[in-house]
Amino acid sequence: MKVAFPVKENKGLESRVSEHFGVAEQFLVVDLETRTCELSENQKTKGESVKCKTGVFAEEAGVDAVITKCLGDGSQRSLNDSNIKVFAALKETISENLELLEKGELKLFHMFDLCQGKKNKKEGGCGHHH
């Protein structure tokens, strides 16, 4: 299984999960079997009109799941359509969230957990306006 995390900086498994999925410039893709990490650029940010829409993985990344702090509706639908599971990050680093995933303690994003429903951090959102 390969799991992608939006990141600002690649520090391997100690990378911090970025605040917002759709506009992350890169994703760290972790192979759970080998614990190897591969950096994947967000294909969506390469276009001229970057908007807060879905992050797009290169097909060869083979991503099975995403763990993120905040996610918009377009991203949620696109990932679901691609049969990619989306989990809500509970900790700051990739390694901490992987530990929770392997224990079965991360929950799948529900449509009411989406970024648009929680416009500010006090409500548990990312503070990003769509």
Short description:
The chain has 130 residues and is an alpha/beta fold.
What's the helix and strand layout?
Elements: E1 2-7, E2 26-31, E3 36-41, E4 65-68, H1 73-81, E5 85-88, H2 94-102
Describe this structure in words.
A 5-stranded mixed beta sheet has the order 3-2-1-4-5, with helices on both faces. The protein has helices at 73-81, 94-102; strands spanning 2-7, 26-31, 36-41, 65-68, 85-88. With 130 residues, it is α/β, with parallel strands linked by helices. 14% of the residues lie in helices and 20% in strands. The protein is built from 2 helices and 5 strands, in the order ββββαβα.
Give the SSE order as H and E letters: EEEEHEH
Helix content: 10-25%
Q: Roughly how many Å is the radius of gyration?
A: 13 Å
The CATH architecture category equals: 2-Layer Sandwich
Return the domain count.
1
Q: What order do the strands of the largest sheet run in, or round the barrel if closed?
A: 3-2-1-4-5
Number of strands: 5
- Strand percent estimate: 15-25%
- Poorly predicted spans: none
Write down the CATH topology.
Nucleotidyltransferase, domain 5
Mean pLDDT metric: 80
Q: Report the sheet with the most strands, covering strand number, pairing sense and barrel closure.
A: 5 strands, mixed
CATH superfamily: Dinitrogenase iron-molybdenum cofactor biosynthesis domain
Task: Assign an overall shape.
Answer: globular
Number of helices: 2
Class by helix and strand content? alpha/beta
End-to-end separation in angstroms reads 31 Å
* CATH level 1 class label: Alpha Beta
